[in-house]
């Protein structure tokens, strides 16, 4: 397992907050570029440990921050501080701190959305992107995201449950953080996350008695220790800013992603089949929004970069080589 001594850790000032950044590799070997790795919920930079080791070994300069609200990075309390304009500005400041003009941006889950919006708002700083789990999607003009989720999936859809300040925090607090990590990171259901009426999502999710081969108790504890320190509010605030982001992004209605893109999906991820995600990424709407893309579908659940580390690492390397 990669330990903290294997990477350099920085605490940098960017966009008015202090951000923790893990760094590995110098970029002076056979590779000729910088890779920015963006985690999702409920992860931290540590979710990219396998890719950091692989890419640094291949000569690339790898930067993996704890995003705003996570780990050792500042976590503003107000959800209005979690718009994509805040997140992209944080990442621009990170690149400026390390004197990086352009990077390949790789993200999973919320980190994938951060990668998409980084490339939408500042394509001049993005060499290309790789998005795991979450493809770029159109902004619907007729209905706000939360209203849409409630209409389609009901009030007990996990995103809806995460909206009320303090509700999910109180529910999560009934369990130790290691149990929460096991419940959230080891989900093997393929349907969307909808709790039964009157039940909190975290109570509904089971706790596996056996760990899958791709993660150890020690590695899960690394995540748990960070959430024990930081709490979960920062992560929930991304969900709580959905409608605000919808309002602010109106001027970019219909805008396309112009940088080269690769989408990596797990065929056993929640909603990939039942939620229509496979049809969407293979259809014309996505093709029109992201003209220059390729799609990779792996035999995996949600946390693809941890479950299939070698395959994901080689997919990143192949795009880097293609863009060099």
From TrEMBL:
Catalysed conversion reaction? an epoxide + H2O = an ethanediol; (24S)-24,25-epoxycucurbitadienol + H2O = (24R)-24,25-dihydroxycucurbitadienol
Would you indicate the residue range of the signal peptide?
none
Name the Gene Ontology molecular function terms of this record: epoxide hydrolase activity
For this UniProt record, the keywords arranged alphabetically read as follows:
Hydrolase
Cite the AB hydrolase-1 domain residue spans from the record: 34-309
What domain of life is recorded for the organism?
Eukaryota
Pathway annotation = Secondary metabolite biosynthesis; terpenoid biosynthesis
Asked if the keyword Metal-binding belongs to this entry, the reply reads no
List its EC numbers.
Answer: 3.3.2.10
The record's Pfam families line, in alphabetical order, gives: Abhydrolase_1
In this entry, which stretches build a coiled coil? none
**In its keyword annotation, does this UniProt entry include Cell inner membrane?**
no
Q: Where are the transmembrane segments?
A: none
**Which EC main class describes this enzyme?**
hydrolase
Gene3D superfamilies found in the cross-reference section:
alpha/beta hydrolase (3.40.50.1820)
Q: What does this protein do?
A: Epoxide hydrolase involved in the biosynthesis of cucurbitacin and mogroside tetracyclic triterpene natural products (e.g. siamenoside I and mogrosides IV, V and VI). Cucurbitacins have cytotoxic properties and exhibit deterrent taste as a defense barrier against herbivores. Mogrosides are nonsugar highly oxygenated compounds used as high-intensity zero-calorie sweeteners; they also possess pharmacological properties such as regulating immunity, lowering blood sugar and lipid levels, protecting the liver, and acting as antioxidants and antitumor agents.
The family annotation for this protein states: Belongs to the AB hydrolase superfamily. Epoxide hydrolase family.
The molecule here is called soluble epoxide hydrolase
Traced from the root, the source organism's taxonomic lineage reads:
Eukaryota, Viridiplantae, Streptophyta, Embryophyta, Tracheophyta
